[in-house]
Specification:
The chain is built from 18 helices and 13 strands. By secondary structure, the chain is of the alpha+beta class. The strands form 3 sheets. Strands 1-2-5-4-3-6-7 form a 7-stranded mixed sheet, with helices on both faces. Strands 8-9-10-11 form a 4-stranded antiparallel sheet, covered by helices on one side. A two-stranded antiparallel ribbon has the order 12-13. A hairpin with a 5-residue loop joins strand 1 (19-24) and strand 2. Helix 1 (2-14) packs parallel to helix 11 (241-268), helix 7 (158-168) runs antiparallel to helix 8 and helix 16 (397-425) packs antiparallel against helix 17. The termini are far apart. The relative contact order is 0.11.
Length: 590
């Protein structure tokens, strides 16, 4: 673990906000290791409302499951909030993980968290994050549909098409439950256990039960799984701990660089106004490049809608100009607003779910001739100013970041002054000697000064106390974690077919079959011109009952010479196997 400590020290020198939390067992071995970069903690203050969490395997030498906390930024890019190494996936381990993650992030819990169907995670989230809305990944729920439903879930089956239309359309809770019952019973799957379990837990994964919950456009843990896949391209399989941390730091650095490039592209892009309505121009000024494309898609689809105002109810009824072929989904959408016309609400609740105005509300805005998007329809986290005014609740990070910024600014100013001195000192010989003399005096004066190394003491056990964490940063006396086995059946103990394991133990023959095989001469698959099989002979003893590889006679191999050739088919000296059975004109040399 000494090498890992050195890596942590190097990262902390460059990133003052980097923090580590550890959970130790009775032997002072690492049981759980949670770490987060300063940039990730700052990203959480702006985009930590929705978090996905998933674990992956085979990324380190100790076979520890590695969990990633991932979110989405205002460019719709994945942003890594932190990572955790676990020796066990138990309820207590997940409780420790979620409790310390929230403490490291300044005590602010996410509004929504997406995970897989792990029961231990669900219990831990209910205990440690009671105010957070927990949601299951839809892909994990349906990934075993093919093997559980068989032919009914084939590629072109009507049941599969109807099921996914129901899951993807904007429907209400009552309509979802009614249509689910019709689809299942209509296809004769009312007794299927897989569908029964999915319907029993529908409130954890089905879209109609989360329409009023902000999920930042995510319905699965795909971002965490994608980050895990990218992580495995950085980290070789079974990497030691110090290499794992080094490559993870590189991954986070590259993600920050990707965001910087997208930030630059957003500032440089010149939008082509395609819809020709005033709110489109306003959207180009407030949204980032990727979010504007999503906004434009909704604006484009609003062109297929009709809008009628009902004055007696003070509402708009939005319908499709032409009826859709699908029998699932609403036919009419009611849009209301407040007296100040700054907030608009649609029955589809798409804005509450994704933070982007739905096509029904945009149709109303175009109908009334709105020049700008109302403030109630602009979610700051999707705008170009998403980071402005963000409150950082991270204890001690402001002072550490300012000290790091001062060091960086001093380095930049000194580098600029040194380059200017080099340019002036290289103009003449006299100027060169004067510059070297001053540099020598400055070096001697700086060497005589006693300057405390700011990196010392960075990794004391409690150098940055964060409320709620069990043990922060790094203790030099800790030991490496034990190697653990991941969940599920070990791959090396899985029953394999003979095709998968060609070197497996062969079937034992009975004594009668063994005797029959010994008594039967071995025949070649080649024919003579007469149509008779060639009987293969041992090249060592000449026997027709076995081959050279199975021969038990300990005979010294004869040196190969051009004057002595033995046929490997009949055992006769004087010709080769390729000319066996033909009249040979070969004569031995004297």
């Amino acid at each position: 673990m000494a090498k890992t400590l050195d890596v942590f020290v190097r990262i902390r020198k460059r990133d003052p906000g980097f923090v580590v939390a550890m959970d130790l067992d009775e032997k002072k071995r690492i049981r759980s290791l949670l770490f987060a970069h300063g940039s990730s903690r700052m990203d959480y203050s702006s985009f930590g409302d929705v978090v996905t969490f998933d674990t992956t395997y085979r990324t380190n030498l100790y076979n520890l499951p590695f969990g990633l906390f991932v979110g989405v930024n205002h460019h719709f890019q994945s942003v890594i909030f932190g990572g955790v190494l676990l020796t066990e996936e138990t309820t207590e381990a997940f409780k420790w993980t979620f409790r310390n993650f929230v403490a490291i992030m300044g005590g602010r819990a996410p509004e929504t968290i997406l995970t897989d169907q792990c029961h231990q995670m669900r219990v831990a989230i209910d205990a440690e994050l009671p105010e957070t809305r927990h949601r299951w990944c839809k892909w994990h729920v349906l990934r075993k549909a093919k093997e559980s439903l068989g032919q009914a879930y084939s590629k072109n089956s009507a049941f599969k098409r109807e099921l996914h239309e129901l899951l993807d359309q904007l429907v209400g809770v009552e309509e979802f439950e009614t249509r689910w019952a019709e689809i299942v019973t209509g296809n004769g799957l009312g007794d299927n256990d897989f569908l029964a379990r999915a319907y029993e837990n529908r409130e954890m994964w089905a879209k109609p039960y989360f329409t009023d919950t902000f999920c930042a456009g995510m319905t699965s843990t795909q971002r965490s799984e994608s980050a895990n896949h990218v992580l495995k391209t950085y980290i070789p399989r079974s990497a030691p701990m110090h290499l794992f941390v080094t490559q993870f730091d590189r991954l986070v650095t590259d993600r920050v660089a990707d965001e910087g490039r997208e930030e630059h592209a957003t500032k440089q892009v010149s939008y082509l106004l395609r819809a020709g309505v005033p709110i489109e121009k306003h959207a180009t000024l407030i949204y980032t490049r990727n979010l504007f494309e999503r906004f434009y898609r909704e604006l484009f689809l609003s062109g297929s809608l009709l809008c009628v105002f009902h004055e007696e109810d003070n509402k708009f009824i939005v319908t499709y100009a032409r009826s859709t072929s699908s029998a699932i989904g609403r036919r009419e959408y009611v849009v209301r607003w407040d007296e100040s016309k700054t907030n608009y609400w649609c029955v589809c609740k798409s804005f509450d779910h994704s933070g982007i105005p739905c096509r029904h509300v945009l149709k109303v805005l175009v109908h009334i001739g709105a020049a700008d998007l109302p403030p109630g329809l602009i979610m700051k986290r999707w705008t170009v100013s998403a980071r402005e005014g963000a409150v950082c609740n991270i204890p001690g990070y402001g002072e550490a970041a300012s000290s790091g910024a001062d060091a960086a600014s001093m380095h930049g100013m000194l580098h600029a002054a040194a380059m200017e001195l080099v340019g002036m000192g290289s103009t003449s010989r006299q100027a060169f000697e004067l510059a070297v003399d001053y540099i020598s005096n400055a070096k001697a004066a700086l060497s005589a000064m006693t300057v405390d190394d700011p990196s010392q003491g960075l990794f004391d056990a409690q150098s940055m106390p964060v409320p709620g964490t069990d043990k922060l940063l790094f203790d030099a006396s800790v030991a490496a974690p034990p190697r653990v086995r991941s969940r599920g059946r070990p791959k090396e103990l899985r029953f394999k077919s003979p095709i998968e394991s060609p070197g497996s133990k062969k079937r034992v023959l009975s004594a009668n079959k063994v005797a029959a095989n010994v008594a039967r001469p071995r025949r070649s698959s080649r024919f003579l011109k007469t149509g008779v099989y060639i009987v293969e002979h041992c090249g060592t003893c000449g026997s027709a009952q076995h081959t050279t590889a199975d021969c038990s006679v300990n005979v010294a191999p004869e040196p190969f010479t051009a004057t002595r050739r033995r046929c490997k088919s009949c055992g006769v000296v004087g010709h080769n196997r390729s000319t066996c059975g033909r009249k040979s004109t070969y004569t031995t040399k004297q």
